[in-house]
Task: structure prediction
Amino acid sequence: VFHGRIYHRHSGAFAKGEGKMPAKSEKYLSAAGRRAAVEMMGRAAPERIEATFAKRAREVDESWARISMNFVINGMYSRGVLPTGVRELCAVAALTAICREAELESHIRIALRSNRAEHVREAILQMAVYAGVPAAHDGFRLFQKVMAEPEFAGKAKTRPLRRRPAQRGAEPAP
Result:
């Protein structure tokens, strides 16, 4: 993209009239992105996300705001392959492993809206194997902070998962 127009690197020409960057007044969320946002964060989410990406466009760049929105929320989060709960457990695990605390805190909230608290906690604790105990401790500290928030106070009673007895040569239960 060059000055709001799409440049075709193979032909060396600009697109004729088509492919211009959307006007700044247009919304960032697609219909599928809006559905994903509501499923993840509730009814008020689309407006918050629109405001966040409008701010990103002002502070960084309009094109970057659209590229990142289209890839993340309008793209990956809207694919419909993984249920939100599973996708968010993956996000919590990955963000724990790479120690991205600001993002992890928000994804713990999203994960708790569609998963049992002990499953979210376990996704964090399992990262001790892959990212080290300090990363799991940091993630667990954020988990406890989020669990203390009024929205999640009712889920606060997590219990250890029932462990299945290990059997030699046995396949794990589904």
In short: The chain has seven helices and two strands.
